[in-house]
Amino acid sequence: MASPFNALKHRNYRLFWFGQAVSLIGTWMQSTGQSWLVLMLTDSPFLLGLVSALQLAPVLAFALFAGVLADRLPKRRLLVATQGTMMVLAFLLSALTLLGWVRYWHVAVLAALLGAANAFDIPIRQSFMVEIVGRGDLTNAIALNATIFNVARFIGPAIAGFVTKELGPGWAFFANGVSFLGVIAALLAMDVKAPRIEKARGGVLAQVREGLGYIVREPRVSTCLVMLGLISTFSLNFSVLVPLLARDVLHGDAGLYGILMSAVGLGALIGATGMTIISGGGPRRWMMNAGAAMTGLSCLALAFIRGSLLATAALTLAGLAWIVFYTQSLSTVQVTVPDRLRGRVLSVHSLVFNGVPLFGSLFAGSVAQSFGTPASFGAGGVAGTLSALGVILWWRRAVRNGAATQGPVAGAAGGGND
User: What was the pLDDT predicted at 57?
Assistant: First the structure.
């Protein structure tokens, strides 16, 4: 079994990893504080879902073009620009809130601008990984990234819940702005040798089509992306539903909301830690399938829970199942895609994970508004579980037909582990 910390032997990755560790705590503090602020301003589940949708919508518009940029320009410079933009937006929201000037439309506009920056940041950041660790430690780097992401997901909401309750959400936004300094400093300190960039084949649209054509032809990648989109759309609307669960179903305050969101992070942290330990074996298809199905079932269970302890346990299980699915899915895509298409394929991954679920946010908010929070959890859980089963059957059919033997890493992707 390979060391769970192999990727950290690379200096550039160590800088990146520690910088992200600081920044992600701030990101989760802002996400948690923003949801509570919207409820304070509007008392509307639908408007809460709308803010989440506005933050995701720009990914639909820009993600594919961001992938072309990632394949054509130095990624480190692009990341400094995107991270700096998000820092400015966090400070602006903090100032509006602390001065008492904030209105719902301010939050909505800033959420959309943050989503636009994220649309470029995510595929560039993911495709940058291979430049700082190489292919040999790529799966381990993905698992380690998931670990710090979920350490932050565990710590950030808990801190944000306390800060929001005692000081107000504006200070959570300010902390997020400060946290970006860590990752920007790390990027500037790196010594990165950029890979040779191939001459572009045609215009931007032709390059986008080339990436999409590869995905359609490679079932190992296409099944991962379809399952990712369906599960994240139907079963991962925690930013919309958990504050409603805390306030309306469990009759708690911002402190309980922070604890429940941290439970998702705790489960994901447990799952991510396990993924780092086994990352030397490459991605495993059966783990991805099991994680997807269990994510949907955990969401379904929340439709019937009326106690804080059981809700915390179910959200912990949901976080664990989700991160097992996500790390295995992303690892499969990363080790399969050729380098010259990496940015474009990962831009589709970003679009599917961060853009398509805006419809899920609207769906979850609308169902909660009309039928209640438990009904929204139930509908999402059933749809997510059935979606996972449908894609599993699709993959099995591809294996039987021999289509899944294509690609450079059939063994690593786990085609025989189904």
Answer: 80
The CA R_g of the chain, rounded to the nearest whole Å, is: 20
3-state SS string for 316-366: HHHHHHHHHHHHHHHHHHHHHCCHHHHHHHHHHHHHHHHHCCHHHHHHHHH
Query: What's the whole-model pTM score?
Result: 0.72
The vertex-33 CA angle with 49 and 319, nearest 5°, equals 70
Structure token pair of residue 187: 């990027």
Asked if 332 contacts 414 with a C-beta cutoff of 8 angstroms, the reply is: yes
Which long-range contacts link 147-150 to residues 24+ away (Cβ below 8 Å)? 147/269, 147/272, 147/273, 147/275, 147/276, 148/17, 148/20, 148/21, 148/24, 149/20, 149/24, 149/268, 149/272, 150/265, 150/266, 150/268, 150/269, 150/271, 150/272, 150/319, 150/323
Distance of CA 288 to the CA centre of its chain: 16
Please report where in the chains the tokens 């820092």 appear, as a residue: 87
Query: Left (φ > 0), alpha (ψ -120 to 50) or beta: where does 48 sit?
Result: alpha
Given a contact cutoff of 8 angstroms between Cβ atoms, the answer to whether 368 and 244 are in contact is yes
| Token pair in block for residue 370 | 């009309």
- Judge contact between 384 and 314, C-beta under 8 A: no
CB 18 within 8 A of CB 186: yes
Q: How far apart are the first and last CA of the chain?
A: 21
Q: Element (H or E) spanning 40, and its range? A: helix 11-42
Residue 407, sorted as left (phi over 0), alpha (psi -120 to 50) or beta, turns out to be: left
Tell me which residues of the chain have a pLDDT lower than 70. 1-4, 194-202, 279-282, 355, 402-418
199: Cα separation from own chain's centroid: 31
Q: How far is CA 329 from the centre of its chain?
A: 12
Q: Cβ(411)–Cβ(281) under 8 Å?
A: no
